[in-house]
Amino acid sequence: MKPPIFDYVTAESREHALAVLRSHGDDAKVLAGGQSLVPLMSFRLAKPAVLLDINRLEGLDSIEASDGSMRIGALTRQCELLTHPLIAEHCPLVRAAAEFIGHPAIRNRGTVGGSVAHADPAAELPVLLQILDAGIELCAAGSQRTVPADDFFMGLLMTGMNPDELLTGISFPLPGKGSGWGFHEVARRHGDFALVAAAALITLDDRGAVAGAAVALGGIGDRPVRVVAAEETLKGNRPTPETIQAASHEVDGAVTPVGDIHASEAYRAHLGQVLTKRAVHDAVERARAS
């Protein structure tokens, strides 16, 4: 339970951090909260030659909302998602999902950017980024880019981030008027990673029909996935119980569940349908009340 030998570097500036990443490539790993990386190192599943601590970098821990969008810096601690007034006012979905992240000790150290970069398909934040149409901000020496969430998550613990890039934040458009959200997950114990998680964002028009729909699942496969077929079933229709049920049935054809020691393929498929139905139902009810 001890990590292999590594060099420890404290980033003195963003430029310094990017220079270290460019110099060492895959041999360097970024340390923010360390809630995922340190256990992997202790089990020797990760063996970085260089550990780059970015905790002293300024400007990476802010939460801002303006012009109909929100930006969350990569070093924002997960606990702030539960307490920040801008989150509560503009995007309570994020707060609701953050309540499922680990335990207080983990949320106090774990960072938003660390969870996103780790890309565990059962984590809560990657699922949210899918339905929020979020962009992941990446920078390298002399360049920067924003990658859509759907392109960023590529597989189990795999992302579209290059070895010389640093994740600096996430941004997403805020849900508009007439929008509602739902989030549900099932885990063996509170604080465990989700066996399956479902998130939904629904917008209703003046007639009460679905004008916009976003549905995503986590934990069911090797990455968080948008259930486009369910969204198409909802769009343009009134969200009756029959329509919501039909949308949840689309999970079967849209997602290939994985089985492991925690849950079988069949059980995850069942949870996918049940939790999608619940999340969409809650989103519709909140949209009607908005």
Would you spell out the secondary-structure blueprint of this structure?
Blueprint: E1 7-10, H1 14-24, E2 28-31, H2 37-42, E3 50-53, E4 63-66, E5 69-73, H3 80-83, H4 85-90, H5 92-98, H6 104-109, H7 112-118, H8 124-131, E6 135-140, E7 143-148, H9 149-152, E8 153-155, E9 158-159, E10 166-173, E11 179-186, E12 196-204, E13 210-218, E14 225-226, H10 228-234, H11 241-249, H12 251-254, H13 265-289
Parallel strand pairs: 1-3, 2-3
Antiparallel strand pairs: 4-5, 5-10, 6-7, 6-10, 8-9, 11-12, 12-13, 13-14
Describe the overall structure.
The chain is of the alpha+beta class and 290 residues long. It has three domains: 7-53, Uridine Diphospho-n-acetylenolpyruvylglucosamine Reductase, domain 2 (2-Layer Sandwich), CATH 3.30.43.10; 63-173, Uridine Diphospho-n-acetylenolpyruvylglucosamine Reductase, domain 3; 179-289, Enolase-like, domain 1 (2-Layer Sandwich), CATH 3.30.390.50. Helix content is 36%, strand content 26%. It is built from 13 helices and 14 strands. The strands form four sheets. Strands 4-5-10-6-7 form a five-stranded antiparallel sheet. A four-stranded antiparallel sheet has the order 11-12-13-14, with helices on both faces. The protein has a three-stranded parallel sheet with strand order 1-3-2, with helices on one face. A hairpin with a 5-residue loop joins β12 and β13. α10 packs antiparallel against α11 and α11 (241-249) runs antiparallel to α13 (265-289). The longest helix is centred in the C-terminal third of the chain and has 25 residues, at 265-289. The radius of gyration is 19 Å and the shape is globular. The N and C termini lie far apart (51 Å).
